[in-house]
Amino acid sequence: MAKRLIFGHRNPDTDAITSAIAYAHLKRELGEDVEPVALGEPNPETQFVLSHFGVSAPRVIERVAGEVDEVILVDHNERQQSAPDADQVKVVEVIDHHRIANFETADPLYYRAEPVGCTATILNKLYKEKNVSIPRHVAGIMLSAIISDTLLLKSPTCTEEDVKAARELAELAGVKLEEYGLQMLKAGADLSQKTVGELLTLDAKEFQMGNHKVEIAQVNAVDVNDVLAKKAEILQAIEKKIAEKGLDLFFFVVTDILNNGSVGLALGRAAHAVEEAYGVKLEDHQALLKGVVSRKKQIVPVLTEVLSK
Amino acid sequence: MAKRLIFGHRNPDTDAITSAIAYAHLKRELGEDVEPVALGEPNPETQFVLSHFGVSAPRVIERVAGEVDEVILVDHNERQQSAPDADQVKVVEVIDHHRIANFETADPLYYRAEPVGCTATILNKLYKEKNVSIPRHVAGIMLSAIISDTLLLKSPTCTEEDVKAARELAELAGVKLEEYGLQMLKAGADLSQKTVGELLTLDAKEFQMGNHKVEIAQVNAVDVNDVLAKKAEILQAIEKKIAEKGLDLFFFVVTDILNNGSVGLALGRAAHAVEEAYGVKLEDHQALLKGVVSRKKQIVPVLTEVLSK
């Protein structure tokens, strides 16, 4: 069988990158010819994780069709979040924990999605189902993905299965869950060196919601004021993105990782959807979203509902 | 948790009906409140199966939204094959072995698809993963689904996993695989009492392929000439369906269950796609398709490719 590439979504976060590596490890143990790759450079949090556990960053690719005929997607399925030419290859497997949308195949495939907080939690099950043991460094990066996606098990996306998997993986990785988790989140939340352009692209995803084209960018911060200090410049940059991409809404979400909430900046002709979704009033495009930390669970579904009416 | 309905596709075949029953049994053993239902009456093959193993036919429903808020799909995912108002409820789980298309959710869900010959083969794994034993009558109907979908393990859709599952289930059901399988297929292939209208709707599915609306109906026959004797009437009825539904192609496939091949009748402005897909010439709308027995593996993907160009 020819080699298959395994990769997560564009603007990869820790789960996208480490799940590709962890699933590739499992597949190789089972004798399959696969390579983990990434649709972008690791962010600072992921860099911290890889360096902490001594794992090399995967090769960064832009396109897949010239290189392989078959691919495996982890941590995403939506077309606009995948390789731009993913429609020219065959998707033979998907391991994911998101909604399914803008995804279509001509043939049957292996699709494993579960409504858990992190792809790594599903991979932890697959290792067990296949009776393959998880080495220390792979357990470490899988644990990091769970910490990242669930904000150290505090996000509403976090399920009992994620908690259980995190505890097992911390044991295998030989780290203290709380201590390592805070250290890792802080490493990722250091936004002091970021340009406004970087803040808006670090973890940005595009969605089709009803007839609306929506982009939602999220950053984690130890102090949201570090980011809001640049608000004027951020608003200008968002206006420019809306014009360039023909977006109906750009929603920039700055999540306070210590206090469990976010500040949102919403621009575009559909910005009213944010007011309606959260019962808030945008003031100078800004609103406080108490308790909102999860794009997947607390932002995408509620905005989709408002914008699909 | 409020009750959830579990159902297979419209024009249900043996896998669609028995998978709903078998998955509901598993869910109930796990303490969940579910009811298996069906989007149509059992066909003669399925009636034979249910009566052989003493299982009641599931309640037939037309709509779901008035009754429950959440549903579980088995053996299908495409919108046009599901309940007409499935978009008004939340799909919380899908267990399937088909391609994914025309399927979209607002929230994460449990989605388990594997490229195997039959949904029952996946259910057999889920029983093991959950450590629930399969009672004799449930094993019997699951086995029947595999026999039906793989034409007694001879279809190209049949995988090693299906063969393994069929052997295990035959053992649990206390039947001889070959002997029971032939008896069951013959019971389902008795088309002598069928009207032309029934032949064209018994196992018909609609597909969107590129910009084309395609309907593919398939029947299994012990002797294809039993069906072709009514060809003039069949062609007339197909013309009428094309006009009523605005189809670009209606493909009627009569599969010879003893000799591993089919005769196809193709009508509609996109009928040329059949000629291109199989390198055949339609004569009076008819062509012999040697070795073609599987709609899912040998018809849908090749027609989709031709019609998506």
TrEMBL record, chains A, B:
GO terms for molecular function: inorganic diphosphate phosphatase activity; manganese ion binding. The keyword rRNA-binding does not apply. It catalyses: diphosphate + H2O = 2 phosphate + H(+). Mn(2+) 1 binds at residues 9, 13, 75. Mn(2+) 2 binds at residues 15, 75, 97, 149. The keyword Glycosyltransferase does not apply. It comes from the Bacteria. Residues 181-307 form the DHHA2 domain. This is Probable manganese-dependent inorganic pyrophosphatase. It comes from Alicyclobacillus acidocaldarius subsp. acidocaldarius (strain ATCC 27009 / DSM 446 / BCRC 14685 / JCM 5260 / KCTC 1825 / NBRC 15652 / NCIMB 11725 / NRRL B-14509 / 104-IA). The lineage of its organism: Bacteria, Bacillati, Bacillota, Bacilli, Bacillales.
